[in-house]
User: Fold this.
Amino acid sequence: MVKQLLLVAGLLAGAPVLAGLPQTPPRLYITTEYSPPASMLDGERVIGYSTEKIREIMSRTSISYSIDLLPWKRAYTAAVQRPDGCVYATTRTPERERLFKWVGPTDEGEWVLLGRADRAYQLATLEDARALRIGTYNGDARDDYLRSRGFQVDPAPNDMLNPQKLLMNRIDLWAAGLRPGSGVLEQNGWAGKIVPVLVFNRIKVYLACNRAIPDPVIDKMNAALEAMNRDGTSRRLERKYDNWVTRKPTEAEAGQGVPAR
Assistant:
């Protein structure tokens, strides 16, 4: 009995000391989608300019992590459901604001309606496209945005199906996300075949993390990204992929065995 009392007393005496020890940052489970040149596979390693920014943030903060490339819906759901989950590159919308803690912006872009170069479109505003079939990437922010406003969307399981559908006249327009000055049309051989018709939104994207991740971890990651922007690292990582050319995706990248983006 005396030994038991001494053991309990010892544990109680040590409790404040344990409570005062610094907490080990959680190991983050980070997900993304196949979206070259921002994120894609090189063998079994996820690369791309967005991916390299995330890896640099993790390196500067000494946070352990893993990155998985998944179909967008699975990548997004993992971050919502897993207490150690984060997903990039996630558009920050009012509907998503309270679902995550945010690191970024890591990049910015435009939502653009792309059309066939040999077709005369008369689009001054997004409303002018209401009668047209718009190809989207199933479950992403553009798809949600257009659906919620009653537009005729034709979703694809992977975004790289949409330019093919457009050139085959299966859709009238393709709702794509492009970085300002992007050479994606030229790099993929679509110049002269597919052209921008209307910019209908300007957005910023983030690393979106589950709300269970401690605030000090989020603050450290944001501070690291701000330092990267100041010292030119972010731009240097982007420039590495300025001339990147899309190749045929692997089955793992395609997710469902069909071409992806």
The first helix runs from residue 2 to 19. Residues 28-107+204-254 form a domain with the D-Maltodextrin-Binding Protein; domain 2 fold (CATH 3.40.190.10).
